[in-house]
Amino acid sequence: MRCPFCHNADSRVIDSREADEGATTRRRRSCPACGRRFTTVEEAVLAVVKRNGVSEPFNRSKVVAGVRRACQGRPVDEDQLKLLAQQVEDAIRASGAAEVPSNEVGLAILGPLRELDEVAYLRFASVYRSFTSVADFEREIAELKARQSGAPPGETGPPAPRQPVPSGSSAGT
Fold first, then answer.
1. Cα–Cα 20 to 30 A to 113, which of 3, 56, 76, 125?
2. What are the strands of the beta sheet with 99-101, ordered from one edge?
3. What is the pLDDT of residues 111-126, one digit of tens each?
């Protein structure tokens, strides 16, 4: 780390402490050339690579803004949106990658949003997954219903009841 006073290219770490619940590291440093002390704050940068190849820092407020539009008119408050954005950031950081494609951010939003509000989830998914027909909505609604009933995806409900075989018939033999 370069000394901000004499611009010496080397410095010595005297003390390190976590700050902001572990999101940043505060280091107290000493310059061997001029002897002055200074503090640095280090933070791991998470970058999002957009479809056009441009990379920009992850921004929770962009997640909140996108989800807020999907939640318009729904019983979702600002604290819930901020918590969702935190969950999304935590999930992305857990991957360990320094750069993530923007579509992974969208995928990370879908899970927590589905739990928060199903209507907002459908709205967000319809834009994110580029729904083009009513069939796309129907398929997604069927999956939501299957999740609620505990059925595996693709099954929309309990199987149809079997018709009783009349006695004395030769059906099935």
1. 56
2. 55-57, 47-49, 99-101
3. 899 899 889 989 888 8
Query: CB within 8 A of 137, min separation 6: which ones?
Result: 122, 126, 131
pTM of the model: 0.62
**Exposed e or buried b per residue across 74-88, where buried means at least 16 C-beta atoms within 10 angstroms of its C-beta:** eebeeeebeebbebb
Count of CB atoms situated within 10 Å of the CB of 107: 16
CA distance 99 to 95: 10
- Number of residues that this document lists for the chain: 173
List pLDDT tens digits, range 144-171. 888 887 755 554 444 444 444 444 444 4
Q: Please, which residues have CB within 8 angstroms of residue 30's CB and are 6 or more apart in sequence?
A: 11, 12, 14, 36, 37
Strands 55-57 and 24-30: unpaired
